[in-house]
Model the fold of this input.
Amino acid sequence: MDRKKLVIGAVAVAVLALGGGVAIAAQQQEEPKIDRAAAEKAALGAVPGEVKDTELENEGGSTIYEVEIAGKDGKLHEVAVDADNGQVLGQETEEEELFGEDNGSEDEGSEDAD
Done:
């Protein structure tokens, strides 16, 4: 009977500790001072195109929007926007592997030509 109480107590402590960790993590992400639409407008000012996705994230203690844009240049861009002031912090271009399969086809074709 003492063993059963010990197991139940250990489980209760684990649940409380885990729940507290989740609550702390939730508190660490600050509420944004600008809304999603303002973040998307700022991102589109940096990279013209069409917004595909916008996420609110906590990066290095700062709350930012990551806005994914299909650029008019045909590339996929990820633009970081400060959730406090709407300032564009930076951007990355994701190169899509459009030619990965074509290169394999060309190699096979050159072998057949020999």
In short: Confidence is low (pLDDT under 50) at residues 97-114. DSSP finds three helices and four strands in the chain.
